[in-house]
Amino acid sequence: MKFTLSWLKKHLETEATLDEILYALTDLGLEVEEVSNPADKLKSFMLAKVQSAEQHPDADRLRVCQVETNEGLQQIVCGAPNAREGITVVLCKPGDYVPGIDVTLSVGNIRGVESHGMMASERELELSEEHDGIIELPSGEVGELFVDWLAANDPSKVDPMIEIAITPNRPDALGVRGIARDLAARGLGVLKTCDVEAVPASFKTDVSVAIDADTLDGCPVFCGRVIQGVKNGPSPAWMQDALRAIGLRPISFLVDVTNYFTYDQNRPLHVFDMDKVKGNLRVHRAKGGETIVALDDKEYTLQAGQMAISDDNSVESIAGVMGGLESGCTDETVNVFVESAYWDPIQIAYTGRALKINSDARYRFERGVDHAFTPVGLEHAVRMIVDHAGGEASQLIQAGNVPDVSRSYKLDTDRCSSLVGMEIAADRQREILTSLGFVMDGDMASVPSWRPDVQGEADLVEEVARIESLTGLVGKPLPRLHDGVTRAILSDAQLRERSARRTAAVLGYNECVTYSFIDQPSAALFGGGDDATMLANPISSEMSHMRPQLLPGLLQAAARNQARGLMDQALFEVGTAFHGGEPGEQHVQVSGLIVGRTGPKDVHGASRGVDVFDVKADAEAILAAIGAPVKVQILRGADAWWHPGRHGKICLGPKKVMAVFGEIHPKVLAAMDVKGPAMGFTIWPTEVPLPKKKSSTRAPLVLRDLQAVERDFAFVVDADVEALTLVNAAVGADKALIETVRVFDEFIGGALGEGKKSIAVTVRLQPVEATLKEAEIEAVGTKIIEKVGKATGGILRG
Amino acid sequence: MDDLREKYVGLIAQASDESTLEDLRVQAVGKKGEISLQMRSLGKMSAEERQVAGPKLNALKDEINSALAAKKTALADAALDERLRGEWLDVTLPARGRPAGTIHPISQVTEEVIAILADLGFAVAEGPQIESDWYNFDALNIPGHHPARAEMDTFYTHRAEGDERPPHVLRTHTSPVQIRHMEAQGAPCRIICPGRVYRADYDQTHTPMFNQVEGLAIDKDISMANLKWTLEEFFSVFFGTEVKTRFRASHFPFTEPSAEVDIQCRWENGSVKVGEGDDWLEVLGSGMVHPKVLQAGGIDPAEWQGFAFGMGIDRMAMLKYGIPDLRAFFDSDLRWLRHYGFASLQQPNLATGL
């Protein structure tokens, strides 16, 4: 909402400075977004008078002037043709910044003659494009500030423009008068009266208006008057200035009047050219399919149920949203129908949204204009038209009735203290409401017709606190929930996310936060991309679907980093993936991705390409950090985006998958432009079972005094035998004695022949009762060989 | 005997390696060494002679043994010194690489916010990011026609042709979590709801996804004055300096009265210093929970009241840590992650300060 200071002062008698007004507006909830004050750049200039102007001794076109200033007589060299004795001019002194030429003046020497400043043209002060000569003022005293002279004689030149943000609850502040009312209530002046003397009817028109019965709920009242013999044309300068200052283009007087009252009193109006309207006007609902070219020159097709105003032939206006071009007023209009109606906010909002029209009228009607002002606003407009453009007005034509929306709420003066925490005297509370237009009757506050937002007692408190100023609010400690030390508040799931995140970072991963939406092809590569997770209005095709997994986002990040020349990466994210499009069809994942080498090449030869066992170690470390059991199964058969032979699911049984690690499928990498190979993992923290009992007590530590014994075994097995099968078999050989079985070597092919490999393990035996004798160790060894042989077909390597 | 002593002390001193030293030991104090032989000859002496010669010989033996041991240590030390001289390394070579991971500023600031508000008893509530329009709008007193709906640049989910159900939305704020929490837990309550929110807006200062934290405190007599205190405490701990706030009247459909909250700041060369100066920076929307919102959450507004507030986590991170561009938060540029990220063990807690 834009307005100028002088426009505000039409409604507000005030001595307040601009800064005081701006501060109050923002504090009242009418947040100032922009102020442009043309006076700012003119502040330093003063009036002066040319005492004499003589030819420059050394330049034909220059004159040497003696100028009377507030600091005595000054010599100024001037090239303007109108620089002559006796004229009052605008003086720019050395040190002044002149905006139109972007120069800060200094004492000059022009062809041997000193010059102490300059006399400005309008263009040099950015007042207009005028540059034929210097400014000559018809009045003014030497030493008077130029901005003061302008304020008194040409105020629009120094009229500050103010733009404020309007919250949806304040339609009344979409009119300058509503803003003035708030400021007056705050104590920044007095709201001026704004009565209008209705123009008496000079003739009786035959034109009638009817509202269809099924449309009365959308248009309870419609008023109009016909004015005959109007002389349309340009608006008076003050109105053109006012409209231009707020960014509106003056069109013609009749049209400008409607725009003026839209902004002045939040009263949108429409003017029909009566000579283009056939017969009578009817407010009705569209059947659907009617077309109209609106005032924005675009054709719209109405949908069934939308409200329209039609004459006997066709639709002439999209009710409350935008008028039609055909019956609109032009410079030639002489007979005009001025419309002032009330339109239901909800219906206007839906129509405006459906037709995608953003007009000043829609903006106001959908927020709610003042019902009661409907006929009064009409009289204001008719009075202004007749006074400026002549003509004779008909009687008032009215269909429907102004709806009665009067309501009262009890003002509980203690509520301000209990809800807001501000102590405001009861009398002051009543005074505030009264100044806003509420009518107090005992404890009951009757709501003014221009405040549709006030719907309850809490609103009264809000108004009182707002006008009194929330800056007066003093903080008061929030009582603690209980006496004593604060208790833990995080849930198990939240703790797990934290542990996983911090552990991943400890392991060298950099945490990313990638968008929750990705492109369809990438989503499809990871089991998503269907219509259930599609957005209806994505911001771009790159962000069209909710992500089914975190990995595609990390892969895209890796590709971007590779394009920047950053080849060695370890990225991770903890976040939500979406397995459906319904609320709640989301779950938390922890995903990591490594590409390139373990580090840059180095003198130690430590750098190597990343592999599956890096991500396996990382996934296991994170699982351990969030309390996953140590004993797990590693199964294959994960989703298609993994390398079919190089991945594993870390499971507690076939259906309880806690994590997957592995190499990303080369096809996926190619599709996503990632230079591979790339290793990744995904952990589902909620799949990790929570401990059955919450206890901080650890299981007791059992330390054996007897020394453990280690023995190595190498088995030759088929190449597709998995090491874990072998290890589990070995462990099973003697559960009491065998503490661990650890694989320390794998050898494939060579002398073993095609399709064979050898796996070497170290078995650690921990005696419990007595030191092991060699025979006992032998016996366990035999059992291990037997068990492994049974489980894997492996034989001890000779 | 003195000759013997002189001879061996001299020889031991001159010995240049361990084997020479061993030979000397055998020669002097070995079984058949000169000193051992002399000790054996003690038996042939008279008692008087023995009394003189015995201790002398013993002393000589001890002295030679000590000299041998000392020389042995000296030789070993010299040998070690010699070896170590050869083991010189250029320690200015780079160390073996040890990758350092980082925590994203959003995670870090979220944990900071939680650490502060947990101390005031606020628990952390979470909820769906795809929401029904009822939870995201209607329950928050934003009916279908409300201009705020259009102004929020909402993302809607796709509906197939003929599917007449209203589309779901990507939550535009974390407020629906408040409704779900009130429904499930009732009053009194104190929660914060951090998380991702979505609005269809992308330019210099907006991303279609960003992170928000909202707070909700419901009780019998919580007022806006408690809100002001809570926020001033929060900002002062968060920024590590006393921060004044300014409340300005505003409007949100879900609070009444509503206030925008500014924090005290000073602008310096285009960057902002919080907690000093005379300028104000708008950082937060807040107010007393609207009676209709309490009702939607199944709480009787005649009995309960409370405050709610919401702010951007990303924006707080930008302010506190001087991070210039919001869009970079979601770009995963490794250089950015390393520069603005936090060390893995830098876990926010109140005892160490934030």
Provide an overview of this structure:
- The complex is a heterodimer of chains A (798) and B (354).
- With 798 residues, chain A is α+β, with helices and mostly antiparallel strands.
- Chain A contains 19 helices and 42 strands.
- Chain A has six domains: 2-37 and 160-191, Phenylalanyl-tRNA Synthetase, Chain B, domain 1 (2-Layer Sandwich), CATH 3.30.56.10; 40-158, OB fold (Dihydrolipoamide Acetyltransferase, E2P) (Beta Barrel), CATH 2.40.50.140; 209-400, Phenylalanyl-trna Synthetase, Chain B, domain 3 (Phenylalanyl-tRNA Synthetase, Chain B, domain 3), CATH 3.50.40; 408-468, 2-Layer Sandwich (Phenylalanyl-tRNA Synthetase, Chain B, domain 1); 492-687, Bira Bifunctional Protein, Domain 2 (BirA Bifunctional Protein, domain 2); 709-796, Ferrodoxin-fold anticodon-binding domain (Alpha-Beta Plaits).
- Helices cover 25% and strands 25% of the residues of chain A.
- In chain A, strand 4 and strand 5 (63-69) form a beta hairpin.
- Chain A is elongated, with a radius of gyration of 42 Å.
- The termini of chain A are far apart.
- The model of chain A has no long low-confidence stretch (mean pLDDT 94).
- Chain B is an alpha+beta fold and 354 residues long.
- Chain B folds into two domains: 2-82, no CATH class; 105-340, Bira Bifunctional Protein, Domain 2 (BirA Bifunctional Protein, domain 2).
- In chain B, strand 6 (245-252) and strand 7 (255-268) form a beta hairpin.
- In chain B, helix 1 runs parallel beside helix 4 (47-86), helix 2 (18-29) packs antiparallel against helix 4 and helix 5 crosses helix 11 (313-321).
- The longest helix of chain B is centred in the N-terminal third of the chain and has 40 residues, at 47-86.
- The radius of gyration of chain B is 41 Å and the shape is rod-shaped.
- The model of chain B has no long low-confidence stretch (mean pLDDT 92).
